[in-house]
Amino acid sequence: MSQLDRRNVLKIAGVATVAALTSCTDAKKASAGAALSRSSSLTAATPNWNSFARSLKGRLYLRASSGYAGSHLLFNPRWDTILPTAVVKAANATDVQRSILFARANKLVLVPKSGGHSYVGASTISNGMQLDVGAIRGMSYSNGVLTVGSGARLYDVHAFLDKYGRSLPTGTCPTVGIAGLTLGGGMGIHTRAFGLTCDRVLSMGVITADGKPHNVSATVEPDLFWALRGGGGGNLGVVTSFRIATIPATKLGFFRLSWPESKAAAVVRGWQRFAQSAPITSWGNLHIDAVSNGTLSVHVLGVSTTGNASAAAAQLESFVGSRATSRSITVKTHLEAVKYLGGGTTTPRTRFRAGSDVLKGPMNAATITALLGAVKAAARAKTPASAILDPLGGQAAKQPAGGASWPWRTALGVVQWYSAADNLSGQTFVTNGHRAVRAYSAGGYVNYVENGRSVSTYYGASLTRLQALKKKYDPTNFFHTPYTLA
Ligand SMILES: Cc1cc2nc3c(=O)[nH]c(=O)nc-3n(C[C@H](O)[C@H](O)[C@H](O)COP(=O)(O)OP(=O)(O)OC[C@H]3O[C@@H](n4cnc5c(N)ncnc54)[C@H](O)[C@@H]3O)c2cc1C
């Protein structure tokens, strides 16, 4: 979804965003030793943190370390109260390997963190080790292929590739990590024209639960490669690098069309036709937003990769059956488009609740009414809420060479239920949204993972094979949270 639009939701809600992450430059490796002597909870039988800290090129923070307070935070402040026993800021793949072996030897649960945007806080853990790969973010480019460390953030990836006239199909939030996004799929404006982010991965460096490094591809350990392409982060190993086939960084045509609430059902129907039959160079996500005066705001933000957004907008209007009451058409360069969609080059930390349903096919009239009713109920309750519908189809409907476990190739699109109200009213909206489209839901998008939902619902027909590969590559279930495969 467009962060721009998320911010609008936040503005409507009057929600203030929270300060940026605290810098973590002040904690030296020696601080682990200081922490050891200060912490009353540690005993003689505790892990040997000092020797572990010395073995790392990166940093180790324990709870009493200077710098710990800012070291473990995620994008959503909701998870700030989760306090890992240890935070490792890995500097390289060797640090990742050592952390896995140390955590195993000391029976600590370990969770990897890249950009920290997990909806459920899956990249932090109480009383365990958070392994942050954020500093492993080097990039190089050669012959159409990007090699990128697993801690790179999306804006940095785009800014780097722009220098070579290249791009990648990714999501839109500038601070999302390449690892979390790619391992769960990766949807955005180029999904229909070029497929998901995971579809373009050529190989990955990954360290499995036994501490062994692998370099997997369509020909080397193809089963692990398949599983990592859509199976979701945190399940099968810690990825340290990706090689990804890039796409040309072309000018993009944008359209933004709005209709009054009275046309909302027609717009949903028109958007469904658009998702089914527009050229794969056209993409548009539909936003149905609750407005605090109890009404609905309805608009589609669209992109044409040919640059001709007017034709794409006109086609959508013909499917809706009425001209938009507000329209804007613009053309942007690659990096202008990245900044526009991302609301800039960075994103402030933000509270929210969200969930998703993958739509099997076009919804019937009753389901569309129910969907609109769920947003309307939120509007009446003054709960900031949006249903955001992203189309699939085009290249996303095709299995990439080498195969991918991302399971939703035949789906129409994904509806995200998003609320800036991080409380019961936000959760009520998400629950009502699920109920509204139940008859058309194939499951959920793993990158929009949510609390209280069975993990199996994210994997469709890939579930059984993924479970078998989880047993093969992680037989002791070392990578283990409520959101991992079992
Ligand atoms: C504001 C916002 C906008 C978004 N927009 C989009 C969008 O446009 N399109 C889209 O498809 N998604 C989008 N997402 C969802 C996003 O793709 C997922 O939340 C993704 O998992 C975040 O990745 P991360 O690395 O930032 O998060 P993290 O929290 O660091 O990681 C997410 C998961 O991956 C695991 N993980 C992290 N690093 C590794 C690693 N190196 N190896 C193995 N596992 C790892 C973590 O343990 C966790 O389970 C958005 C999310 C937010 C909050």
Summarize the structure.
With 486 residues, the protein is of the alpha+beta class. The protein has helices at residues 3-13, 30-38, 49-55, 68-71, 93-105, 154-162, 178-184, 191-194, 222-228, 264-277, 309-320, 334-342, 365-380, 424-436, 463-473; strands at 59-62, 86-89, 110-113, 129-132, 139-142, 145-149, 166-167, 201-207, 213-217, 238-245, 247-248, 252-259, 282-290, 296-304, 326-332, 353-359, 386-391, 413-419, 441-443.
Give short descriptive properties of this protein.
19 strands, 22% strand, 15 helices, Uridine Diphospho-n-acetylenolpyruvylglucosamine Reductase, domain 3, 3 domains, disordered N terminus, 30% helix, Vanillyl-alcohol Oxidase, Chain A, domain 3, alpha+beta, Uridine Diphospho-n-acetylenolpyruvylglucosamine Reductase, domain 2, 486 residues
